[in-house]
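Sequence in, structure out. Go.
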Amino acid sequence: MTIPESTPEAAQPATQPHEIKREIFDFLKMVVYFLLLFVCLRFFVVEGYEVQGPSMEPTLQNGDRILVFKLPHKLAQAGVFDFLTPIHENDIVVFESLEDASKRYVKRVIAMGPRGSRAVRAAPEEDAISENAVSVRIERGVVYVNNQRIDEVYLPADLRFRSSARTTYLQDNEYYVMGDNRDVSKDSRSFGPIGDHDIIGKAVLRFWPLGRLSWIE
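Output:
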């Protein structure tokens, strides 16, 4: 009597459950890695937002979807690259509302205060103005920064507002922001300057609608 030799075909059924478990584990591991990468990208690198309202017309329209680049500002805030100045005048930024933590605003940076330590500091006295503070004055629709008129080439003549506002002084790491559609925009004229820690990131790309896909300036 002879004993038949084992063949690969005979051994295969015994290994199938193990192979299935391994494939399921590899798939779940890939899903977890993907989710971790997505979360890291969303919270630290780039995030999408939808523009709501007409305050940034004509640059951004109601319903536009934009990408906000967050990484340089977060690195500068963390002190990893403290020499970076990721936000500049004329940049369009998304920031947290000073009045409602659930809201985000998108506005243009008109002026910036001096660059100082990004450590959280107590708010200065209301009447205390440092000698390095940057002044912002609005007179008959014209904006003056440190008494110098700024040339707002991005602002169409028919959207230039005619009102005036009191002079505001920007302290360290403060920003004066305004909407391009000045007559309907709620901005630093009403709620004052925003702080470095309020900024989420810089708007860099409009990706929807596809017909207006473009870099944001």
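Check: The first helix runs from residue 8 to 45. The chain has one domain: 44-118+132-215.
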